[in-house]
User: Which sequence fits this backbone?
């Protein structure tokens, strides 16, 4: 979920933290994905990605903590509108969006899940000058398995769908992008991952597995990004 850190009650970090504490990610993976997924470890990319920090774990599911933070922020009973697409674009997306809304309601906020057609959801997501909602469901990805793409889109000033900016994060971007050594880049991006975890410009909810049905006559090796390149397929005799 991309948070609106620019206008509305989502500008208060305590609200974003409360929402993250209200999400039972283990339940989403077990009951909605039926085990075909995993918790995101507080990051918008998996452990194959350069910049993934194995030390980061998800915000613990703690409704009492969520209620406390909502109360401290003075937003009890206030509406929190979240947009999403009804197009079944991602695995079990509607079920997850509705479940997240129900979980947020238990925190003391009033979640309003605004499920609209894909074109309208995309328009809302890309409206950065005058944000329409408090949050938007989306699914970041990086074909290069590099955290820069995800973070630059959603957690950098001027990012394609970013409603967040912070001078510390901008300095880390400058350092990382000036470095040619991937090991050093990875170390800097782990700091960026930690910054995103602490400040919540977006909230990772879950990570689904890619599921394939493959004929025994087909030899295939998929990319970890979910791509199915024809050059890696061979029909067996």
Assistant:
């Amino acid at each position: 979920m991309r948070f609106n850190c620019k206008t509305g009650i989502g500008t208060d970090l305590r609200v974003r933290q409360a929402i993250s504490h209200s999400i039972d990610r283990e339940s989403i993976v077990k009951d909605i994905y039926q085990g075909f997924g995993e918790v995101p470890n507080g990051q918008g990319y998996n452990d194959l990605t350069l910049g993934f920090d194995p030390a980061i774990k998800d915000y613990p599911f703690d409704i009492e903590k969520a209620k406390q933070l909502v109360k401290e922020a003075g937003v009890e009973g206030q509406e929190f509108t979240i947009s999403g697409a009804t197009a079944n674009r991602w695995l079990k997306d509607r079920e997850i969006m509705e479940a997240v809304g129900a979980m947020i309601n238990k925190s003391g906020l009033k979640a309003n899940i605004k499920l609209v057609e894909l074109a309208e959801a995309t328009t809302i997501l890309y409206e950065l000058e005058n944000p329409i909602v408090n949050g938007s469901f989306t699914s970041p990805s990086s074909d290069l398995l590099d955290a820069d793409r995800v973070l630059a889109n959603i957690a950098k000033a001027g990012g394609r769908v970013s409603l967040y900016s912070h001078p510390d994060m901008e300095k880390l971007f400058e350092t990382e992008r000036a470095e040619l050594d991937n090991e050093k880049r990875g170390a800097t991006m782990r700091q960026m991952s930690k910054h995103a975890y602490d400040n919540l410009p977006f909230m990772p909810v879950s990570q689904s597995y890619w599921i394939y049905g493959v004929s025994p006559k087909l030899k295939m090796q998929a990319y970890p990004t979910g791509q199915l390149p024809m050059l890696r397929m061979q029909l067996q005799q």
In short: DSSP finds eight helices and eight strands in the chain.
